[in-house]
Amino acid sequence: GEYRMGATETFDDLNMQFVWNFDKFRPNSLGQGGTPYAILDAGSFFRAMKNCWDNGCSVSNFAGGALSTDFPKHVIGIRDVHLPDWSLSNSQFGLKLEGDYQGVGFSLNALTYRSQLPSLRAVVDNADNPFTPEIESQSYDYLIAFDMYFPRVNLIGGSLDFYVDDIKSVFRVEAAYTDGEEFANTLRPELYSESDVFRYVIGWDRPTFIPFLNEKRAFLISAQLFGEYLVDHERETVNGIEAGNPNWEINHVGTLLVKGWYQNDRVSPQVIMAHDFKAHASVIAPSIDWLISDNLRLTVGANVKVGDGEQEFDDCRACNPFPPFTGDGEPGDTALRNLAGYEPLGRFRSGPIGMAQAEDEFQITLRYRF
To answer: Which InterPro entries does the protein's record reference (predicted)?
Structure first.
């Protein structure tokens, strides 16, 4: 619903929007093995972990890093997926107040919703110790056996849009604060933790003449800086590896778009660049769009990735869930942590750009409209 108040004594324009989504919950589709642009290859990992729980599997260098370990079914993996029930208590509700004040556009937002991205919780209560003859069917701290949940998240945020005439530029500032989000955490017995998150975006758009490229038509230059801060971040360095939350405590991603037009706007070249600061990874994507006729369009593009590549992180293979069989000391003893890998948690350090370092692409698209 929407309530338009129009101009008031204070604001040039003001309106309020209400959103109530009571549709059946649908999680994000993260793709399967071989699916193009499957972010972080999560689908392959989920399928493999579900197979481990249902049928058993082998894990290399599990206990102390010395030997590969064969696990029977119902020990490690993903046991179950808890989709929110289709009920009014699981519906999603949001409010948005937006308006204009002396040329400055603004909005205030509030939303409560179910995360469409899954959270893995090591709270399985019927796992078995494979190193004993008995079937215990109980829970074990720091065991990589998970149930998948979709937690409720509460969000508040706002935005500002304004034009600075002296430099012919439009600026955008957006910010959001959430609570309820869950992240992997190898320092916790349940292998996850909740953290408030503060995210923000600063954007700048400007039409700019570049005479040596085009004297008659301005180029669009658009830059954005995305920031993320995990308020309740936890991390330790033990035995030379990182353990805790694999996500960076504070990270930024910068983007830049330069777009031009030629031949009465029928030919439009552009280049998009993005850089992940903490992952030390970048992508450069040039392309050109040519409207050959009213019916025929040709687009040629590429993207090239550069950077440090994949990064490792503690994956809890050395978390010692079955002492003394998997190591001396107590479960989760950080002194035993000596194993890290690219899969699965190293991917959160590298990010989508860092994990795609070997996936440069070249594309040609020809469209004909009847």
So the answer is: DUF1302 (IPR010727)
The sign of the torsion formed by the CA atoms of 319, 324, 325, 327 equals positive
Cα–Cα distances in angstroms (integers) from residue 109 to residues 17, 173, 177, 217, 226, in the given order:
9, 14, 10, 38, 18
Evaluate if pTM is beyond 0.90: no
For the chain, domain boundaries: 2-368
Number of separate helices (H) and strands (E) present in the chain: 2, 24
Residue 61 confidence (pLDDT) above 80: no
Q: Give tens-digit pLDDT for 103-145.
A: 899 999 999 999 999 999 998 888 888 888 888 788 889 898 9
Distance in angstroms (rounded) separating the CA atoms of residues 281 and 286: 17
| Residue 63, pLDDT score | 64
Residue 137 burial (CB count, 10 A): 11
Secondary structure (3-state) at 46? helix
3 state SS of 283: strand
Query: For 72-114, how does the pLDDT look when each residue is reduced to its tens digit (9 = 90+)?
Result: 899 999 999 999 988 888 889 999 999 999 889 999 999 999 9
- Measured CA to CA in angstroms, residue 164 lies from 200, 225, 243, 255, 274 at distances of 21, 19, 45, 21, 25
| Assigned token pair, 34 | 């071989």
- Cβ atoms of residues 69 and 121 within 8 Å: no
In sequence order, what E strands does 211-331 have? 214-230, 235-238, 241-244, 250-259, 267-276, 281-291, 296-307, 313-314
Rounded Cα distance between 30 and 96, Å, is 29
pLDDT over 90, % of the chain: 54
Unique residue bearing structure tokens 């950077």: 307
Q: How far apart are the first and last CA of the chain?
A: 38
Nearest to 282, CA basis, from 261, 258, 255, 306: 306
Find out whether 44 and 56 touch, Cβ atoms under 8 Å. no
Backbone dihedral angles phi then psi of residue 257, each to the nearest 5 degrees: -120, 130
- 191 backbone φψ class: left, alpha, beta (φ>0; ψ -120 to 50): left
Closest by CA to 332, choosing from 189, 140, 190, is 189
